[in-house]
Amino acid sequence: MARKAKTTPIRVLIAKPGLDGHDRGAKVVARALRDAGMEVIYAGLRQTPEEIVRAAVEEDVDLIGLSILSGAHMALFPRVLRLLKSERGSKIPVFAGGIIPDEDARRLKRLGIRAIFGPGTSLDEIVRTATQLARGPA
Amino acid sequence: MTRPPALPSAARAIVRGDRRALARAISAVENGDPSADAVLRALYPRTGSIPVVGLTGPLGVGKSSLLSLLVAHLRAEHRTVGIVAVDPSSPFSGGSVLGDRIRFDRAPEDDGVFFRSMASRGAAGGIAVTTREAVRLLEAAGFDLVLVETVGSGQVDVSIRDVATTRVVVLVPHLGDEVQTLKAGLFEIADVFCVNKSDLPGAERAERDLSELAALGPARDGWRPTVVRTSSVTPSGIPELWRAIEAHETFLDEAHVRADAERTRLAREIVERARDRLSADLVVRLGKDPALRSLLDRVAARSLDPRSAADRLVADLLRGR
Known about the structure:
The structure holds two protein chains of two kinds. Chain A has one domain (11-135): Cobalamin-binding domain (Rossmann fold). A five-stranded parallel beta sheet of chain A has the order 2-1-3-4-5, sandwiched between helices. The radius of gyration of chain A is 13 Å and the shape is globular. In chain A, helix 2 packs parallel to helix 3. Chain A contains five helices and five strands; from the N terminus they run E-H-E-H-E-H-E-H-E-H. Chain A is of the alpha/beta class. In chain A, helix 4 links the parallel strand 4 (94-98) and strand 5 (115-117). Chain B is α/β, with parallel strands linked by helices. Chain B folds into three domains: 1-46, no CATH class; 47-255, Rossmann fold (3-Layer(aba) Sandwich); 266-318, no CATH class. Chain B has eleven helices and eight strands. Chain B has a seven-stranded parallel beta sheet with strand order 4-2-5-1-6-7-8, with helices on both faces. The N and C termini of chain B lie far apart (47 Å). The chains are: A alpha/beta, B alpha/beta. Strand 2 (39-47) of chain A pairs parallel with strand 3 (96-98) of chain B, so a sheet runs across the interface.
């Protein structure tokens, strides 16, 4: 189901949960999404799941992108999903990027992370997937 | 006695403090969604009575960090705060990176703050066309005051005066000599000048130049801008900044100029809205006007200049031809 008309910009929250300080990937993705015409709310480093969900609600985003390189994804991502659900906002799709082992990626997808991008993913693919997640299948 | 008409359910939810309803209504306003009209209309009578503080100034002067500290100060005083932070949209892709949340620290689970980022979406002047309506929604939601942070402003980005009851112009040391302060535009709209990054050398000089500027001309509507020094690093000057803002708000009431200032803003808003409506309609009509073709032929052949052609089109239209 497409949530948004094609004419209004997609709003996407990009955040880094957890404690690692490697935000280059998140910034590269933020910039690519901007260049694709999206309004990117860049929340930056060291966001708690609570802060991420609060920002998603206040900013009324269509999409959430989480970047993580600390290895704590199995603790933090499910918590974001749980909090979203309790905010009655569980329909906001969540995608993720970073260093996430395949087995974890499969489990996270089962839990509801809609797409996971590892190192080397092209920006085109990320933009295409993000657009589809926000607008529904073309 | 007539009872006020029932509020649409979205408006009721906003008044009740439903944060998601508020967030969605702001989106609807931003997107020009027709559902926003009824909500704005219903909530309008509940607006216009809280301080709306504008923070403006060139990019990189520290507006976002200052905003974060100011909000912390206000929360310590148990005031609830709505925030609209505007960042520019790309003139190329239409996209934007809204980064003002990065500098924003707050206690988790604090419902006394609502932070909304807004892209300017093509509007010049430092705010979005819909910023003032977003401010009204925040007021209707019950916040004690609203802070608006503009796009990093150039010398003539003064749209914040259409929204804010108190305008804080944020500057830093070494932005230029005192002649800069005499130039038209940004310096003319300040109720409070804030010299931020005052931990850096040159802050006293900047403060002195601004104080002299404030003392030079006649007071605007009886108010001379005050100057405060702040630093987000040490941090310092934040209570003084708030006192300066409050002093201006008090002045608005005591000098009985608040209502006049609001009327001026509203008059501009109505005329602007009307102009936008008219121009959209007119552009369509003029584009289809058969007279345009013949005028265009003559302009292209250099037998008529574009200004005269435009004058004739408008004259025809106003005669109701």
